[in-house]
């Protein structure tokens, strides 16, 4: 044995290590493969040895060889051996090798599960780290399922190094094992507020990845992210969050409105280009999402465009590239703002960097106008000529066509020019876009009637010179245009000058080398041409020429009859026989032209590509109904063995269902569609075509195009688009001159006949087209249905992660974790690991899901009091088991043997989900900058469960619990106070920064202290404040309310009322009614009478409160007002139910019409200088509170924002919903506060000042 | 997400490859070749972004690369990553590799300019560079961007390896002497733009 070890170590001395291997490979440049194969043999020998060090060394070398492309999967087992070494050095090598070459198909991977689990729970953090890192690369669904619990435990590890890795790897686990998402999510969310920035960043990273794919499920996290965004200083985190917001805003435009302000601030303040760029990007996304709703963000657009211009002008090519990229996003919604930078973008077209040129090309799309289209395209054509490399040239080609054809050829004034551009493009070598050019030619020729004669002439020329194009035979090659050319010449052959010649060109022997589908078109259109020729000659009674043409066809067509292509063959032989017959008739001097032409009579109208799909199913037609009853299953089964065509029989027979549910029907429909699609003999119904021909007006009714031939155009040979450019300029000049003349002489009649258009100011849009063009629109069936083809890739792994997490977030009982959603427990393991230090951990892991499920059960039972005791006992039992409280923090509130009120709050009634939802609504709907809004939101959702749970998430929360257990009212207020205090502090901080952010108390409170990271400078904390004041109260119910102006509508205010059930009974059928005054009216749903009450959309179980909002319309806002109202409701207890009512008075103060609006100091100064404002002043004596408290109070209670603060003097600003400006100058000295105020509405100002006075007299 | 990290030299020889999605070895080599082909024909003064297209992933993916004297560092990323952020990340990685390597062992090759990375480091110590990279990017996601933290973790792990006696008789000295470096000498004008990099101030361990 000892000898063996000695021998092993002696062997090792001669082993190559990685460095030797690399050196060896470098020294054997000539016979590298041979050298490596000998090395692999050595490695194989080394792997056979028992010495783990030798094995590790060998595996290390294999990792290197793997990089060079050698398959090392044969050593997978040895890699596992090295992974399981107890030494970190070897373990690391093993995991590295595994992460490089293991994948889902590696079979030894299932052997690693226990080893990895052991490493994950290793006392050495680096063993755990290495295992996590390795696992992140080769995690399989099995590993994910088996290890999810262990990793989840690690998310709460004491070492941030492990925590961040565990958090990050969860994303991989979710991908492979989507069931783990719901159970793991609360903890993941918790980690967003981890004290360690690395862990926080990892959590943000994971949630951003998740949310990117299924944004709607994460919308409710927006407030939390918003808070992070305004508090984080880590650019990486900020970038991720800002990118995430970019994905969320399209779903929730109100979020966008909230974001604009802080993002704009960031844009102004950051020096980091990457952050700036992402901010701009998200602002753009916001603007796009808002573009339909609110157009009033021109300032933001300008800011973005201006910043982007700076990027584009930068000498750094990267910034230039990104600037252009972002610019193209703005282009879609705000083309005007981008157009002003046309110079810059055209300049980028000449950049030496291809990536930049491509991006500039994207932008060109939006730059064109009628005026400059020709010019821009000319420039592009020059680039086409110069371009090396087909990719760029093809890109240019598609861009030219895109630009020209955009919005139904809107910018094309001269279609002759466009046709000649298309013809010029056919001369490109090696392009792949022949098909694109061809379809453009067809489209233009069919839809622009005026151009047909010209198009036909050009196409005839193309056909004549077909040999120039046939060089490129690959599919989609340029020869595709011949398809279009032949069809156009044939279909519109009446415009051909010399149909004979074209016919001849189409029947040249060389044509037989073209692709089959083109030949087929050639043959068919040759027949059309033949008809035209016949008619032409018959009119001239020149039978000789006609017969020659027939002869030509009879001679040439046999070539096509022999074609290998079925389509060509069939058409050719058909037409050949036809021609032969005609020839016979001709020899008998029978007039046939008329009949032959009749074969091809009729106008083809363009039909929209999607037309057929959009045909609605006529009423009464059930496509799924059987026309004939299918034979019953039993019959067919009986006959099966005997029938000769048994197979076919069974295929068509379906079990007869008398009752079929919707799902089944849908499934069958799908199956049938599939079958039909695969069945070549199934003729798809085409009601559209029939309809089109029935309903379509005759050809005569299509508006006929007037060709203005003021500019005679006859371009010999191949057309040159440049000539058009010149002609166009001349024409425009001429037009201008004419217009001037016209104006001078004022002889409208003369010119009026010549020109159809009105004279007007010469603007870009007034450039008259060279041809008066009616573009025939594509036909669509009547009642076409708007189709939304939203097809997602069914193989997308993220689809499985589309899990609604909101219910989970709110922690309510409406959809708790189902039993199936528990993470698997290691019950199959007979004995858990027994290392003494780990005991607690190991045991708590399997415990976890059980607790969770019992909580669910418990919550379900909550409503029924009788079950409570039992569950409490359960809880107590569990408490004994609890080893680490922070391991399952969400449990805390429930674990506490609390009194009934508390439990009731946690176990919320079904309505609380709506509270949760409306919470987000509330966060979103409040004014974007109002510090008040934050506070307002604070008390409102207090009953919602989430704050409780997230609060409990903080490890130290256990200490807080006893406080919560105080009598309800006290508890409530205390609890709130605490929150508010924290919020206030934050608010202070923010005000300082001059950013008025909003934050959401709701998800955020839990980790408040941790998140602030000590960045906060503390001023004396503010006392709690709330804008909610008592509305009315009796023994059953308490109502508090707050009034907010509606930013969007100057005549609306929103009254938020919190109803709190104080009784032990169930309150339902609540109806809220107000006696309207002339000035203020409650907005009732349509159809309701002016005295009808509004039903409060929820019921209140005992002890629960919830919030409802009512909208009032107001006319004058300069005076405060009181409205009388009544709340009626039914009190339902176990044995009785009674009707009750409660009267109240709603007080609309002038303050409630003010909306916190930020104002920059320069704008503020301008406002004051304007002199439009009336002034007034106020003195408050004996105010002894710190100045910042005073300001905060004014901000909070009266919806002001601080413009500037210098020592004990501050300027403040607010705006009413009807746009009155209110400016304050607040000064303080020796307990005396003087407020000088200015406003453009004196009575409003007076009332506001009175209210401010009132506020301070109360405290 | 980062889909792959490729490091190869001016001749397309791979020096380090790290795929975060499985590809068979021959496919990996093909991707390296194609990427090299795309990247190598670009001038040094053009932008550092390439739309990879068909290569890996599809239109959502971009190649973001930096070219140092003899090496190309290419990250293949999707749209969830910030382009400029990744560019900075590459720079950070290079600096960290330099900080970890340019001590003692390679005194003779010590490159004054921290902007560049020495190809030899990568050639002979691919494994070590992997370990460093693992502290920066994990499973395709950015794990840590704080240089101090990364260097500290790498060093702690190397110490551990050293205490175990290392892999071979020749001690793995390479990464161990970070703290002996004269840190103030690291050029402070590194143009990293926006990452908050404070040049490591290693606390004594």
UniProtKB/TrEMBL annotation, chain B:
Name a single GO cellular component: AP-3 adaptor complex
Claim: Protein transport is one of the keywords in the record:
yes
Q: What is its main location?
A: membrane
- Residues forming the AP complex mu/sigma subunit domain are 1-102
Q: Where in the cell does this protein reside?
A: Cytoplasmic vesicle membrane; Golgi apparatus
* Gene Ontology BP terms: Golgi to vacuole transport; intracellular protein transport
Question: Which PROSITE patterns does the entry mention?
Answer: CLAT_ADAPTOR_S
SUPFAM superfamilies recorded for this chain? SNARE-like
Q: Tell me the superkingdom of the source.
A: Eukaryota
Membrane topology, as annotated, equals: Peripheral membrane protein
Q: Which UniProt keywords apply?
A: Cytoplasmic vesicle, Golgi apparatus, Membrane, Protein transport, Transport
User: Which Pfam families does the entry mention?
Assistant: Clat_adaptor_s
Q: What does this protein do?
A: Part of the AP-3 complex, an adaptor-related complex which is not clathrin-associated. The complex is associated with the Golgi region as well as more peripheral structures. It facilitates the budding of vesicles from the Golgi membrane and may be directly involved in trafficking to lysosomes. In concert with the BLOC-1 complex, AP-3 is required to target cargos into vesicles assembled at cell bodies for delivery into neurites and nerve terminals.
Concerning its family, UniProt says:
Belongs to the adaptor complexes small subunit family.
Q: What is this protein called?
A: AP complex mu/sigma subunit domain-containing protein
What organism, scientifically named, is this protein from?
Pygocentrus nattereri (Red-bellied piranha)
